[in-house]
């Protein structure tokens, strides 16, 4: 495949590349070419020294083999950019994109690459000051070197971002897939392998000849937790707690039960082990249960979308709206005096009202609209393909439905609940958070100015 | 919260910022400050003119309101960077991170920002050439301006990447959530609303007084498809086909049936409409079915993990391995002469062998290991926490199990199938693709050197 026949953007990049080169006097180009022939290795060494000073970068460079290999590719890269940069602009452009793909695979983020490039540019500036007496030429050579490096980084960044976003999505899909694989069965299975290990320890304790107790870390449970559960429950605080307990069992509890030096163990410490195992079981079941709930994306009480996916849904609608030039609106609705409902009729009463309010909203919108539970007594509707006029009309309709609908409570009682409503039309601002804030401010104004009313956001 | 008390990296950034400023003579700093006071608006205009020439950037800047607002923030940003840059380095650093977060929310990628910055730096270089006669000072001022801009971009990039990856993950979670909401019910429901619309059209056709036929685009089906299905089925080619059909129905088929100018429609064209509706139904059911299959992440025949999540799983293990200094291995296994099995015993025979081969592998590994169907007759095992020695031993064990196990076919027949096996130990190279390639090359060598053997990758 020829890079020539790719996207228009690539053509732009090649033209840009050529333009930078052509705008530079031959003497500058030749000097940089020979400078790189001589100094590229030294520059690559500076680069890695500098990167090793950065904690996140260091993790990419620990293995000697990697460091050596990357040092070589860095040297080659520096030379390739400045060696006959006009011969194959398309090839150079394509190569930068490839580098970006590799960076995405090894998760080397753009900002670390930029950081390294800043250092390179600094050293190049110093080196070029030595090369030229003429200040004008020196400035041109510097601009040339920095221009090519910046453009190369930009090209890497294009493919890095595309690929790293794709990989982030696949990672998330994998995580959800791993959780979704029949969680009930998985929970019981892992509890079972944990208990098998515990049983093994107890048997070994009774069998005086066994040299040492089997470490939890190396058990089936330990292996599962370190290599599979960590991915499933990424970001949950119980993960670290479980890792700590595993370490404590292996390094503190087991050695006390059966010291390695053959001394008599403190068998009365068996209850310590049982306590740790109980903690493990508790944390594990918390993890499984939380993830069962959180992943379903719906609010348990109202069955509306939970707030979690609101940014995704609104961002997507902003894109649709920009592309197709259709309007959309957010309607943020807060139940008036909801605290009184809870105080007078108990939380069960409040819950009943929320469920009926949600049903009322769902019945007021279309197949393409979205309804979220935004907060405690705040509900949010996204109306797609509406004008400000119809958004206001629909909001007003919702308000009057609330006003006229008695909400049923237990034992044949009922209660009136009005709603304060803020409406924000999408105004072209690409930040979803900004739009939500506008709806929120309008709703606040509706509250302040007496409740049970609709306010359009400015 | 004080930015001072944040991560070590921030302190580094603040120190870097201060170092760039302190290394620059006061005259350069003062000149840039007053240059920005005078020219920042002009520079911001150049910036947006340039960005409008880029197709992807243009989509962020269409709305006048946005362009005006961003122009203002760009002007402010330029001034803030060069105005007393030592007074509050921590504040400046924190602000750049905030800008990166906003860019992530509006999905303005780093490479577009860098592109704009390249242009800014170019214009600044020209402007500074006018300001200073002394070449030395001019070079220092240029290095200063570019240094601060580069560092600011790098800081934006840090928070951009973190946030945009998080958002990509949430988007994917939302997509899977949207698909997972009882697909069977959803499929029937959307087919029903499509048929409701078709029915409405037919009724309107018979009722001569109705002015025009209801467009599909604005029907419940059209709304659902444009605002919900597009997110669920992102990237599937049927989506574009369905969008085309909806457009064709509304713009070609319906106007022929009932022209807007009141002329008599070609009622005999009803069959065209039915054909398009049949196409829609077919594409829709293809979409639902493909997504049901693809999302489950398992190979339908062997119930092993499908290849889809291999990059996620291996990347993650690379991270674990680097962090905890444990080895892991990939075992890539190809069934020997599998084509003969298929030719002699039919595809059913081949399928049976693959299923038994998968079961054999699953029974040979531990709770923390992974088994994938890598290709047609290629299976891949990831062994966690192993040395090269034990990886070779396990591979050899698998090879000998294959050699000694007769694979059952229909009607009491059986067949012998051996395996060629390549084993690659993780060697510190952070690219998962590189590791897979090494396992692949070793497996190829096992094939070439006579099959039914284990080769360790170099």
From TrEMBL, chains A, B:
InterPro entries for this protein: Diguanylate_Cyclase, DosC_2nd, GGDEF_dom, Globin-like_sf, Globin-sensor_dom, Globin/Proto, Nucleotide_cyclase, Rev_trsase/Diguanyl_cyclase
Catalytic EC class: transferase
SMART domains: GGDEF
GO cellular component entries: plasma membrane
Cross-referenced SUPFAM superfamilies: Globin-like, Nucleotide cyclase
EC id: 2.7.7.65
An example Gene Ontology molecular-function term: heme binding
Catalytically driven reaction(s): 2 GTP = 3',3'-c-di-GMP + 2 diphosphate
NCBIfam families, sorted: GGDEF (TIGR00254)
Protein's recorded name: Diguanylate cyclase DosC
Native source organism of the sequence: Duganella fentianensis
